[in-house]
Amino acid sequence: MTFAQSAAIKNLYRTVSDTYETKADSMTNAFIESFMIKSKGIFNDRYQTYAYNAYWTQAHAIDVVIYGYERHKDINKTLANTYLKYIKLWYKNKANNYAGASASNTTTPNISTDYKMFENPYTDDMCWITLTLLHIGEATGTKAYTTVARQVFDNYIIKRAKEDEETGGLWLPWNTDAGSGPNACTQSPATLIAAKLYQKLGTAKYLEYAKKLYAYTSKKIVKSDGRVEEPPLTYTQGTFGEACRVLYHVTDESATIKNKYKTLAYTYLNYAFTSGRCTNGQNILRHEGTSGDQSIFKAVLIPYAVNYVLDDDMPATNRTSLCKLIQKNTTTMWKNLDLSHYPIVFCNYDWTKPYTGADKDASMGAMCSGASLMENSARMCKAIVDRYNQELEDGIDEMKNEELKIKNDNAAYDLAGRQIVNSKSSNRKLRSGIYIISGRKVFVR
Predict the structure, then answer these.
(1) pTM of the predicted model, to two decimals?
(2) Nearest Cα to Cα of residue 368 among 124, 12, 67
């Protein structure tokens, strides 16, 4: 039985696909209306409150819009073009990069090595922005965004790397200040960037960077019980899990090491959804703090968990488990939204409770986490439904009901093995559904 035909996914297919997509449309629109500065494509830190230094969070805010664009670009071009306009404005305005005030206003990527676009004293900030640039390139099919992502990595991020003799790995200072050391929120996205650049460009140095960044992180930062860092936070759990998943696909190492990457990808993601450190004890991702940084952490985890669910090379049991956990969080978050003032909507830091604070205190990060959850749940459901339908087309002989008659020697059974039509029921028509006839699946319209 394939993943898309499992009982859990069939249930998802029957009940929530259209609902998730509709709710995602509402949530992304509310996110834009409540927090985006539409003339710039960047987001306020709080409701109607601009923060000049809100930079890394802009990566995850526009990611929600990018996922919306990807869902709609082939079915609703008007809405997709609106989202694309915001994405281009985000790029043009350098994602609110307060360290790049001298940047030009052009939307054409600068290919020189001394350009002022997305570079920043904070290495981790650049890493998150670079991942989003790669996402824009993937979504739009525009190579220029990948080129800029590569430039930021080559000219600024990896140039700060230090060799570690003990591990044979690389570590990155999180800041250009003297004495700044490595941390999980720099190492994790940097490892993922390097792996993705190799996946896209095939240039060997990026795979070597990825393996060395991974080596340091796994030996010096990750804990033995599945924590990526202490304290364990959802965004680094998700990002390092995604780095392991991509490394599984791209590495030139042995099958043993490849399978280790596969195992660890699930370990880090599953920890985020099941440990009492990252959840409320009932598999709902916890309240991680009220700052703009803390409240956006869950928005980073969710897309990577969905990527794992949709990866055919990952174990089906693990994918189904994560799928159910994502669904549970989505249902809980949506149930506790106050939609009475739509399209102005605020998501709480704690998905088990509605937001009851003042409008001026509503957090973009918290809303981004909720919008990311709903947008990526819709992405997950749509992909599963598409695969389910494709399996029907590939594996089932379709016949029009009026043309199908059961012969005396041709009994029909439902998928539970119960006989619906016996061999003596001559010329009897079947209701629409899936049956087993003469050992074959038959889809009756």
Answers:
(1) 0.85
(2) 67
